[in-house]
Structure formats: C-alpha cells, structure tokens
Design goal:
Blueprint (H helix, E strand, L loop, with lengths): L1 H20 L3 H21 L1 H4 L8 E2 L2 E2 L22 H37 L1 H16 L2 H16 L3 H27 L3 H8 L4 H13 L3 H22 L11 H12 L5 H28 L20 E4 L2 E4 L1
Antiparallel strand pairs: 1-2, 3-4
Helix pairs in contact: 2-4, 2-12, 4-5, 4-7, 4-10, 4-12, 5-7, 6-7, 7-9, 7-10, 8-9, 10-11, 10-12, 11-12
Length: about 325
Amino acid sequence: MATTRGAMVRMLKTTTSPFRQTTGLARWILLTGAVLLGLFVVMALFAPWIAPYDFGQVRADGERFPRSAPPGGSFWFGTTTNGSYDVFSRVVWGARTALEVVIIAVTLSLALGAPLGLVSGYVGGVLDRVLVLLMDALYAFPSLLLAIVFSFLLSDLFGGGVTAAGVALTVIYVPQYFRVVRNTTVSAREATYVEAARAIGVPKRTIMSRYLFGNVIQSVPVIATLNAADAIGTLAALGFLGLGIQPNEAAEWGYDLQRALPDAGADIWWTGVFPGAAIVLLVTGLTLVGEGLNETVNPTLRKRRIRPFTLPERGAVTMETGKGQVDL
C-alpha cells in the first residue's frame, strides 16, 4: 500500500511539475482561465440548485412571471419579453447546455480524429492519401456552414436536442485533430526508438499504441480547449439562426440573444446582455486555458522559475588539499 501511494505521489508530482515550475504571465493566464471555466462548470453541475426556476418555467405559486421585469428583487437578471422567462435561470441552465455540447463534440472528434491521424501517418500509402484528401475537403468548408448542413441532416435522427448539436459540431473538429496527429506521427515514425521496435519485430499496432501515441498526443489538450471555445461560438451562432437546440429541449444562449434583438430598441437591455456576457466569459476562459496550457506544456515556451543563488562569503568555504585546508 505504501509503495502504491508513493508511486502515485511521484506520478502526480511529475505530471504537475510543468505547472508548478511555470511563472510569470503564463501562470496568470492559466489561473484566470481556470477560474472562469470553473465558475461555469459549477453552474452547469449544480444548475438545479443554483437556478431558482427551470429554464422553461413561466409560473411560480400559481402566478405568471411579470413580462420585461428589470433586474432586482425576485428576478436577479430580470425577465424576458417573449414568454416571461427568468433570465438568470436561463443563463445558468444555458451553462449546462453549452458544456454538454462541448464535451460531446470534443470527445467524439478526438476519438475519431486522433486514431485516424495516427494510422494515416504511420501506415502511409494509399490509405494516407485518401484520408488526407477527405480531411482537407472537410477542412476547406467554413465551420459554420458545415455545422448548419449537418444539423439539418441529423435533425431527423437525433431531434433538436443536445446530442444533435454535439454530433453536428464533431464534424468540424475531426480534421484538426487528424492533421495535428498525422503530421506529428510522420515525424516520429522515423525516430530511433521506433526503428529499434521495428527491427526486433514489434507489431505495428503495438508500436502505434505503446510507442507513438503518447508522444504525438501531447499537443491535443491545447487544441481541445481552443476547439471548445470555438464550439461555444458556433453553437451560439446556430442558436441565433434558429438552427441549433430547440427552445423546448434546453436553454441556449444564442437562441436567447436572437429573441432579445427586438428588445434592444425598447431599452430592455438585460435580456441580451446577460446571455451575451455568458458567451464572452466562457469563450474567454477556455481560450485563456488553452493559451496557458500551450505555454505551460510546451518546453520551448515555458519559463521556469529561477531560484535565487547567493555566493558564499570569502573564507566561509574550505577545501582539503595535500598541503592542508585552503579557504575559498
């Protein structure tokens, strides 16, 4: 038990050593992004306890919510004009929707793009050419256009809920993971340790899973956080166009912004400001985490903490020689 605990402690120290050694602007960027992201994660996880009402609730104690009520009192962020929803509750529930879609999109795109890039880069040949052609064709389309097309195609299969939005966004990010992992694999497959493994007859599957995968996937967490930030913006754009998650399925910030457009001319600012601020803050938090991870994990960019060193006073150190002690 003590040996296992010691091994876990050593592994934890090794994993967190780049974060502990990083100093300066990179550390503050990472911490700021982590705080912002942690705020929305807490909102998403504890939405039923944080939000006073459900995302589609318009009544409480048998009475309908007042329409266009300003922030304050029982409604911290006010109420909407269309439907008399509580804005604060929809912002909180929208955090859960956004993170669910991001988790689905990033997980599926990583699960598809990384193995395909690894196999394509290591095997090469006709398979590599076909996969590169396919991924480049997908990458050439604008991301929002791809999301719109696949949201239409998947609406009959998955409906208009969170799953359909997550799968539609998956197609956008698969080529990015594929290209990064493939290019890294092409460089790593000629390394000495891979050549040695091939020389002793190690199967291709073992080489890719044991020797290459851990080395070529190091930059993936950085890409994942940046893709997550982009997914939030794309999801909001789909909701703003009315092509994302249906309003009866879940709360979505982009849809709330679209419904708040007519309110802007009537000085009803709160119906659009708070959902828009939530989008900006979450995208900012994910972007800062990605940039901080890039400077923290990448050894060429990481700035290590320099410990102060003071020379000892003259005569404080002695050295033994054949002729006796000599003061330094």
